[in-house]
Design goal:
This protein has about 240 residues and is an alpha+beta fold. The protein has 7 helices and 4 strands. Strands 1-2-3-4 form a 4-stranded antiparallel β-sheet, sandwiched between helices. Strand 2 and strand 3 (about 50-55) form a beta hairpin. Helix 4 packs across helix 5. The longest helix has about 35 residues, at about 80-115. The N and C termini lie close together (about 10 Å).
């Protein structure tokens, strides 16, 4: 229902799209979804030939007050400039906010792992919750490494060497669960141990670099059309995406 859409929005509560959804009766709206999982709500501005476009909360992500959602934008119907606004403004803010949210989640995973498992208490294969936390890191690490490298940050030789070492361990993004459970060769570093010992250093380095540029994070951009589609004339019941 319309109230569900309000709570699905990933924007400040004072944002124009949140205000419209909260105070006006919506006769039409639309949800744009990309293959990468990005979801945007398109809401008509009452009495105007305009639409608010705002982001929805990313699936399977825990929000935190440290990261504010991207502000919505207001565009005109059926205008090619609208797609450019969505891509260059809204999605740029979305990816930056998601990047920060992802790093905080990975940092919290490591804080939890260090508190929950003292040295010598990790089993082989590791406990399921520990393996799940490691898998999240191993899946995100290649994107983090590439984003740090692509940033404008001036890395010192130690940081550059550190990235090379982390890339050697986590540069293949495909099999984080197997990396946690497959025995390692004697000469190879144990990815799980590297994560526990040095994972936070990678997260801290990523948080210290300059703003990432768009889709170099784990998300790809929404493939926008030449113009925003007019929202379908379904009633507010179609707004409930869950």
């Amino acid at each position: 229902m319309q109230e569900d859409l309000l709570y699905d929005l990933w924007t400040p509560r004072s944002d124009p799209i949140a205000h419209t959804v909260k105070t006006d009766r919506l006769l039409a709206s639309a949800i744009l979804r990309s293959e990468s999982g990005v979801e945007l709500a398109v809401v008509p501005v009452p009495g105007r030939d305009q639409y608010h476009v705002g982001a929805l909360i990313p699936a399977d992500m825990n929000l935190t007050p440290e990261v504010a959602g991207p502000s919505s934008i207001t565009v005109r119907d059926a205008h090619a400039h609208a797609a450019h606004q969505v891509s260059s403004s809204l999605l740029a803010e979305y990816h930056h906010a998601f990047w920060r949210l992802q790093l905080i989640t990975l940092r919290d995973d490591l804080d939890w792992a260090h508190e929950a498992y003292e040295p010598g208490t990790v089993t082989d294969p590791p406990q399921h919750d520990l393996a799940d936390a490691f898998a999240r890191f191993a899946d995100a690490a290649p994107h983090i490494i590439s984003t740090v490298r692509a940033s404008n940050a001036q890395l010192n030789p130690h940081q550059q060497a550190f990235l090379e070492d982390m890339d050697a361990v986590f540069g293949q993004p495909a099999l984080p669960q197997e990396a946690a459970t497959t025995p390692q060769k004697t000469s190879d570093p144990d990815p799980l141990a590297v994560w526990l010992i040095e994972g936070k250093d990678l997260v801290d380095l990523a948080r210290s670099v300059s703003r990432p540029s768009g889709p170099r994070t784990a998300l790809a951009p929404v493939r926008t059309a030449a113009a925003l589609p007019s929202p379908p004339l379904q009633a507010a019941a179609s707004l409930n995406r869950r």
